[in-house]
Design a protein that fits this description.
Layout lengths: L28 H53 L7 H8 L2 E8 L2 E8 L5 E9 L12 E5 L2 E10 L4 E7 L5 E5 L6 E5 L3
Parallel strand pairs: 1-8
Antiparallel strand pairs: 1-2, 2-6, 3-5, 3-7, 4-5
Amino acid sequence: MGAVLILVHVASTNVPFTSESKDAIANIPEIKKEIVLALQELGRELKTFLSRRDRNKLAEDRARAVCAVIPEIAVKVSEIVEKPVVDTTPIEGRLMRKLIAKKWTRDGKVTLEVNNYTGSDVEISVYDISADNAADADMPPAFSTEMDGQFTKVWKMAIPKQMVWRVTYTGKGGGMLDIRGIEDNKKMVVDLDV
């Protein structure tokens, strides 16, 4: 991390400059105190932002681990006990209690899946930005546009609680997945290809 430059602007009808050139403000304790308080407030807001960002990153890493590892554990256990693989989505739901959006690529097919583990129905928009145009998607996007080789695809839907929405299309994956229409603390976006 580099240095931070902070510019303080003092606005008044009667600013006490040190000279006629207006290069600096006179050293008046009240002005100095207000500047220090403003900088302290900015520092607190920055600390809150950074800690929230780090906490969300940790939660995303945990969600990625849960969404990636639990199904693999289920496959290995089913091989050992020689029984069919069980559906692990209820386990994910009990652990997460959020709207979980997953994206993965297998054998040239990109899959987007949204699981509503919240306690209520949700109306959301799924934004997928990648080099894939999703022309053959099993559910066409409500909106699609291309800019500089990147396609923005938007699906709008209502998902009842405890239900799953899924779309698959041909592509290489990558890009970015985002969910809008629900609070950040009630959603988790996981790219299983990362």
